[in-house]
Amino acid sequence: MRPTTLCFPVRPDGKLLLGRKKRGFGVSKWNGFGGKIEAGENFLQCAVRELREETGLIAKEEDLELVGFLDFHFSASSELDHIGFVYFLRQWQGTVQETEEMEPQWFDPAALPYDEMWKGDRTWIPMLLKKEKVKGIITFAEDNENLQHLELYRIDNV
Ligand SMILES: COc1nc(N)nc2c1ncn2[C@H]1C[C@H](O)[C@@H](COP(=O)(O)OP(=O)(O)OP(=O)(O)O)O1
Asked: What is the ipTM score, two decimals?
């Protein structure tokens, strides 16, 4: 799979915006917002475009904080392997809208719906919530759902 971006808008009260994916890869899971990089795009441009397509929110590239770099591996489906750049965003313009791809909802960071998210998320999102930056390799088992192996590192800069 092509490299991806994943962006989590964060409100001043600390709540995170997640979306329930309505179609495609990760359908029905809650996640941040993002997608595959397109030809000629850099990661920031991809993150801005995907956020706008999936939520209606308009971000400036300089407001995207790179907080994670993850290497997702699928032991039974190597065509799904991809890297993901993870961003927090604290300023934007516009209002959140449901889109054809995502049903958005704000969540308290202490009550994220991990049971309905990708299985790796409960390991690295708490690190980000503690203001740590993270780099790692997450390997999914043959069912493409459960975790097979995890290597996560706290880093100073992504
Ligand atoms: C496998 O573990 C993952 N965990 C989390 N939390 N998020 C992931 C994982 N793998 C991928 N993602 C994110 C990365 C992207 O933000 C989306 C997938 O993007 P999608 O395939 O929907 O990309 P689009 O370009 O929007 O796809 P279309 O072809 O449907 O336009 O999930």
From this structure: 0.97
